[in-house]
Amino acid sequence: MPERRIHVQCYSGFKADERPLRIQFQEGFQDVAEVEDKWYSPGSTFFRVRLANGERYVLRHIEGQNVWTLEAFRAKSR
């Protein structure tokens, strides 16, 4: 999957962009139901999220550039 930049609305509490709340796709925003995992690499934070519609995504936040990318996708289980 090639890098795909996306727009993410975030909760900002202790720090800016602490966790994703909504992801914007062409058809509009989708709510994040749960952040299932979070991990760090130099300069980036990764989030594995489950949306309200059951789809799962891995998001990458490149902090120095304030850029969000979609790294992986998994359709909802049937």
Q: In words, what does this structure look like?
A:
By secondary structure, this protein is mostly beta strands. The protein has one domain (4-74). The protein contains no helices and 6 strands. Strands 1-2-3-4-5-6 form a 6-stranded antiparallel beta barrel. Strand 3 and strand 4 form a beta hairpin. The chain is globular, with a radius of gyration of 12 Å. The protein starts with a strand and ends with a strand. The model has no long low-confidence stretch (mean pLDDT 90).
Report a brief summary of the structure.
The protein has strands spanning 4-11, 19-25, 28-41, 44-51, 56-62, 67-74. By secondary structure, it is mainly beta. The chain has one domain.
How much β-strand is present in the residues?
over 45%
Q: How does the overall form come out from the CA principal axes?
A: globular
Instruction: Tell me the total number of β-strands.
Output: 6
Series of secondary-structure elements, N-terminal to C-terminal: EEEEEE
Structural domains: how many = 1
Q: Could you describe the largest sheet, including whether it forms a barrel?
A: 6 strands, antiparallel, barrel
Tell me the radius of gyration: 12 Å
Q: Write down the overall mean pLDDT.
A: 90
Protein structure class = mainly beta
**Strand arrangement across the biggest beta sheet:** 1-2-3-4-5-6
Spans of at least 5 consecutive residues with low confidence: none
Instruction: Give the CA-CA distance, first to last residue.
Output: 23 Å
Compute the number of helices: 0
* Percent helix: under 10%
